[in-house]
Amino acid sequence: MPELTRRRYNIDFKHLAAISPPGTRHLKGLAFSRADWEELRLANERVWLLQPEPPLRAVGLKKYLAEGEREKVHEAYKCSIRDPWWKPPIVPVPDLFFTYMSHRYPRLIANTSGASLLNSMHGIRLKPGLKRTARAALPLLVLNSATMVGAETLGRAYGGGILKMEPREAASLPMPTPEHLEAAWSILQERQAELDRHLRAKEWWCVVSEVDRVLLKDVMGLSPEDVIGLQDAAAFMRVRRTRKTEEHAE
Description:
This protein is α+β, with helices and mostly antiparallel strands and 250 residues long. 47% of the residues lie in helices and 11% in strands. A four-stranded mixed beta sheet has the order 2-6-4-7. Helix 6 (145-154) packs parallel to helix 11. The longest helix has 26 residues, at 224-249.
């Protein structure tokens, strides 16, 4: 529910969980922060998920649920198989969001908001003991041409050129090793804010070019010709995916 609905029914925060709203259009940068979430809350986006604990004594909450029953919400399939119908499941807050439906490329977004997510994304939790810098580094360092070629190869193309990645496919993506990640991050970390601004301005290709230069060429030792080959392959496969769906629609 959005913030105005919460206020209208005077629903206490203890009956709610903070979530990233449905969809992924609001995830423009490398991270989703508490400030980003608060901005969406003030814009009346759907940032709350109802999670009440019985017994239900609050007048506003009971009124809200009663109106749902009058509108037959409890008879919808997902609600009808749930007990109680008004408490949807929620997953633990992930360290990273993964956009599994993408037009350009799949992305990782660091989740520093404390919010959980719905099924419009995958959630990733880092293994215990893994350095927390990985949460900050991965969203930037996966924006490399080798990972993008992997996404085009492993993912499935759907209508409109959308690239979809299921969890098993996402787990097979080419990723930098911890050693390569640490080395590249030590170089790029001071430019994180600058590269984030480029990404939010949709200047994504200059971000990819810089990550390719540092990660693939300087750290991993790929030749300039190999890096250009990966960039060309990623661009060709992306164009082929989007053009193919357009041709089928004609």
